[in-house]
Every structure is written in structure tokens, then in C-alpha cells.
Design brief:
The complex is a heterodimer of chains A (270) and B (274). Chain A is of the alpha/beta class and 270 residues long. Chain A is 41% helix and 16% strand. In chain B, strands 1, 2, 3, 8 and 9 form a 5-stranded parallel β-sheet that branches. Classes of the chains: A alpha/beta (270), B alpha/beta (274).
């Protein structure tokens, strides 16, 4: 694949770590009480996010946390800590709505936007769709709310300029991800693959992408259950950081940081 | 919590709970009538005829005291097995009467909990101190009702690396002993992973938990389908416990011992989730 792109001078590969907070919002949105076996989301606020903050600080890695509005209401201090310790907080639905929203969409996008803006004193500039659910209306509303990037689409291995109502925008960029392979939950929800084998697979993914365009976006969740907040899987994230760092010309970006580069160099992206 | 803030006894780094979900016919009876517990619905009976005896042998070999969570109906139907568990010095704790979904019991929940409680007390001669939700499901009333019955701990949540204490109404509180999905045999045997792969996974999980200094809760089932009652799987569980035992700083307790010790050392409580 030969796409149109340009990375900053000296950068051969950009690496992005994205954390989908997915606390109790995930269960509440599905009408489940966060008790017993449905308490995995609580782990994110209690243990997973603090563990990640320590990990990213230890390795001086910028990372982006996509936070559902409801979880920010449940764990305001934890979300403030993410921001205070220098990491990006972006939006991720209110109750992690993995279903069609219809006419409610505008109100819900706006609600989480204001929850995060009020909590942090700074509005989010990025959004990721919960469960990959997004409509033609979504980008319009995000644009109106002032977002600079979306990170929901699965259709490319490079950032590209967003299309809104068929028009190529130069003020909003799509930063794609892939939730079949470069996301923890399929391995830990469907195939129940041992952590060490997921690490092996992600290293191979990195090798292939490094050899191509050099765009590597990894997504994981700080919850227990199908997430990666627990010690064994946080260790996999740490091993990936170490592995990626061994390669020449790799630079870690927050997603907002990469989005800003792309927007400033939009002629070089499709 | 970091290792510099070690919550465990001096010189220890990793508290280990071995738990066995007794889950016998009470599970299969959700699928078929009592007269039809045959064929694919006889895996629970396998746990009683073969599985639980193998697990008891394995635990004796390893010298580990475990906590068995026992649906009261299964205890009534299999008293010899319960007696053998107690004779070996293991703890018997509660797990519903007939493996009910407690999130759906509504007004019946109080009577179901009381019935199971008293049935188990009658069989074992001692009121159970701990409870684990059948199917992992609770209602907002469950913890309060458990406290009213005198329970000291629950072991149904999967939301922390350590035990913690929750308020449960009326000035009472209850210790939560969280478990871990990847250290539950059914997580990997239900989707048909091999016993070698399970052992490999458990060792990986334990290594990382030991490094982090967390609670380690192993959950086994006696059943013949997704449990560890079959010979090769009981052996895998034994090999895992041997692996845990050779690591410095790891120490075993029954759930009741852990709950009492934790509450004494870390009495501060927090509100229940709902």
C-alpha cells in the first residue's frame, strides 16, 4: 500500500497508544448493574487507569484516553489526574452507546463534550465512537462542537482528511484504528488468547506496519475482564512500548498531537 | 497500590485464595427436569462422583486449604462430599440455594438467601461466613441481606487487585474478596482451550500478579465440562499450585481467614456501588 503522507523530519513511524476508559458506563448503558461479574468497568477507575498513568510516565509516553461522559461523572478525580499528569482526554460517548442514536445523537455528543470541558477546564478536540458506531450526522455535529479529529473509522492505515457531506475538510482529520486486531478486547473477549501470544501478534503487526507507512495505532482498555488493566496485560503494553522503542525513527504521539501535524500538513494527506 | 505500600503481612507479597465452586446438579437443573439429568446434563453429577474427590486429593498433596462455595441444594444431595471437604479442613461457604440468578429474585431474594444459609448451616454444623453469587449476578439488595444474615465476606466482584470493605447498610460492612477471570478454569475450558494452555495462562497471570503484589484468587469447578474435575485438569491445577508455592512471598489463606485478617488490618470502608 502506498499512501500519500509525510511524517515530521526524522520520523519513520508514528506510534499511538489509545486507551478507551470504558468504566461502568459500558454496563449501565446495557442496563446491567455494575455488581459481581458486571463490575469489570469499576476496575478501570480503581486500578487500571492509575496503573497506566504510572506506566506511561515511567516511559515518557504520550497517550490518549477516550472517556465516556458517565465514567467522568463516576470517577472525576481519576479523569482529572489523567489531564493533570499531561495526557490527552478525548470523548467516547456518554454511556458508551454502541447502538444507533437517532435524533438523540446531537444532545448526547454535546452532553459528554460539556462534562469533559467543565471537569478539565479544556474542551476535548478528539472523539472516538463507542463500539465503532457512527453515522453521517456524527461528523457534522463534532465539527460544530469544535472537534479537530475523529478516531473511529477502520478503512485505512494512514490518517486522512475528514469528509463531511462529501467535502474534503482541511480543518478535521480522521485518525483510523482497527478493533479486530490492534485492540485488546477481541483477544480477551472472543478467543481468550494468553497475554504472551497477544504480545507476539502485536509485535508482528508492528513489524509489518513499520515496514510500510509507519502508522501504528494500538487500542486497549483499563478494565478487568476483556480489558488490559490487570497486571499481566499491562505488562504486555509495557513490553510493546519497549519493543517499539527499539526501532529507529519511531515517535510516540498523542492523537491530538498527530492530528495537529496532519492538519498543518494537510496537502500531504488524502 | 504499589509494592512500597505493601498491604500484606511483613515479608509476604502476594495473598493466595484457592476457591472451588461446587456447582453440581443445581446448574444442570436450570436446563432440564430432575428425571432428565442424563447425557450432556450429567456433567454436574460427574463433579460429585469423580471431580470433587480428585480436587480433594490434589489439595491434600499440595497441603493447601481451600474454600468451597456450595449451592445448598447440591449440599443436600451430596452430603458425603461436603463431609469430606470439612474433614480435610477446608472452608464451606454459600452459593445460593439452587444456583439462582439473584439479580432477578426481587421479593424472593431474602427467603432464598435465608433458606440456603440455614440449609448449609444444618449440613455443616456451622453458619457460612462467605458467599459467592451464582452466575456472578447480584441485586442491589444482596449485600445488605448478606450482612443481615451475618456474612463477613462476599467474593463475587472482579473490580480490584485487593480485598476491600464495603458498607452494606445499618452500620454494617462486608469484605469483598475479588476474583479474577483469567484465574477461573471455566473461562478457558468453556471455549475448549487445552489444559496445557490453561496452565501456561495461569502461570503468566500469576507471575504478573506476584510482581505487582496483588491478591491472587484461583477459581476451580468440580464439574466435568468446564471444570477441573477431570484427571488431566486436576493435575494441571495441582501443577499450578506447586508453581505458586515455590515463589517466595506467596501465602495461602481460606477466604474466611483472609476476610477477617484484611478487615482487622484495613478497616476503612467505602460505599457499596449501588
Amino acid at each position: 500500500m502506498q499512501g500519500k503522507f509525510r511524517w515530521p523530519d526524522g520520523v519513520r513511524c508514528v506510534a499511538l497508544l489509545s486507551v478507551d476508559f470504558d468504566g461502568p458506563s459500558h454496563e449501565i448503558g446495557r442496563k446491567l448493574r455494575p455488581l459481581g461479574i458486571n463490575s469489570w468497568g469499576r476496575y478501570a477507575g480503581r486500578r487500571g487507569v492509575p496503573r497506566y498513568l504510572d506506566l506511561f510516565e515511567k516511559h515518557s509516553i504520550p497517550a490518549t484516553f477516550f472517556v465516556p461522559g458517565y465514567d467522568a461523572e463516576c470517577y472525576p478525580q481519576v479523569v482529572k489526574d489523567i489531564h493533570r499528569r499531561g495526557f490527552e482526554v478525548a470523548a467516547h460517548g456518554y454511556l458508551h452507546e454502541g447502538w444507533a442514536l437517532g435524533d438523540e445523537e446531537r444532545e448526547l455528543l454535546s452532553r459528554t463534550h460539556h462534562i469533559l470541558a467543565d471537569l478539565l477546564g479544556q474542551a476535548p478536540v478528539g472523539w472516538r465512537s463507542p463500539s465503532g458506531r457512527k453515522t453521517a450526522r456524527t461528523m457534522r455535529v463534532l465539527k460544530e462542537l469544535g472537534y479537530r479529529y475523529d478516531s473511529s473509522d477502520k478503512d485505512y492505515d494512514l490518517p486522512y482528511m475528514a469528509r463531511i457531506d462529501g467535502e474534503r475538510r482541511t480543518d478535521m482529520v480522521e485518525i483510523p484504528n482497527n478493533t479486530y486486531s490492534l485492540d485488546d478486547f477481541p483477544w480477551f473477549k472472543f478467543s481468550m488468547t494468553p497475554a504472551s501470544e497477544v504480545l507476539e501478534q502485536w509485535r508482528q503487526e508492528f513489524d509489518s506496519l513499520y515496514a510500510e507507512n509507519g502508522y501504528f495505532m494500538l487500542t486497549f482498555h483499563p478494565r478487568s475482564g476483556w480489558g488490559s488493566g490487570i497486571p499481566s496485560r499491562a505488562k504486555v503494553i509495557e513490553e510493546m512500548i519497549r519493543y517499539i522503542r527499539q526501532h529507529d525513527g519511531v515517535r510516540f504521539f498523542s492523537i491530538a498531537g498527530l492530528a495537529d501535524w496532519c492538519l498543518a500538513n494537510h496537502d500531504y494527506f488524502e | 497500590m504499589t509494592t512500597s505500600n505493601n498491604p500484606w503481612p511483613q515479608g509476604k507479597t502476594c495473598g493466595v485464595l484457592v476457591t472451588v465452586n461446587f456447582d453440581a446438579e443445581s446448574v444442570d437443573l436450570h436446563e432440564v427436569e430432575p428425571e432428565n439429568l442424563f447425557g450432556r446434563f450429567s456433567y454436574g453429577r460427574y463433579g460429585m462422583r469423580a471431580g470433587v474427590w480428585r480436587l480433594l486429593d490434589m489439595l491434600r498433596t499440595q497441603g493447601v486449604k481451600a474454600t468451597f462455595f456450595v449451592p445448598a441444594l447440591d449440599a443436600e444431595n451430596n452430603p458425603a462430599q461436603v463431609e469430606a471437604i470439612l474433614k480435610d479442613g477446608h472452608e464451606v461457604a454459600a452459593r445460593g440455594y439452587a444456583f439462582e440468578d439473584h439479580s432477578q429474585l426481587r421479593d424472593n431474594e431474602r427467603s432464598v438467601l435465608a433458606r440456603a444459609h440455614h440449609a448449609l448451616e444444618k449440613i455443616t454444623g456451622k453458619a457460612p461466613l462467605g458467599w459467592r453469587a451464582p452466575q456472578g449476578l447480584l441485586s442491589p439488595a444482596t449485600l445488605g441481606l448478606l450482612c443481615e444474615l451475618g456474612y463477613r465476606y462476599d467474593s463475587s466482584f472482579q473490580d480490584d487487585d485487593y480485598p476491600y470493605v464495603m458498607e452494606c447498610g445499618g452500620g454494617r460492612d462486608i469484605v469483598e474478596l475479588p476474583s479474577f477471570q483469567m484465574l477461573d478454569d471455566s473461562t478457558l475450558y468453556a471455549p475448549r482451550h487445552s489444559s496445557n494452555r490453561v496452565l501456561k495462562t495461569w502461570k503468566e497471570e500469576f507471575d504478573a500478579m506476584h510482581d505487582a503484589g496483588t491478591l491472587v484468587t484461583l477459581t476451580l469447578h468440580a464439574r466435568g465440562d468446564y471444570g477441573s474435575g477431570r484427571a488431566v485438569r486436576a493435575a494441571a491445577a495441582g501443577e499450578f499450585l506447586a508453581y505458586v508455592q515455590q515463589r517466595s512471598g506467596a501465602f495461602f489463606m481460606t477466604c474466611a481467614e483472609m476476610a477477617a485478617w484484611w478487615k482487622e488490618q484495613h478497616p476503612q470502608s467505602e460505599p457499596a456501588p449501588i
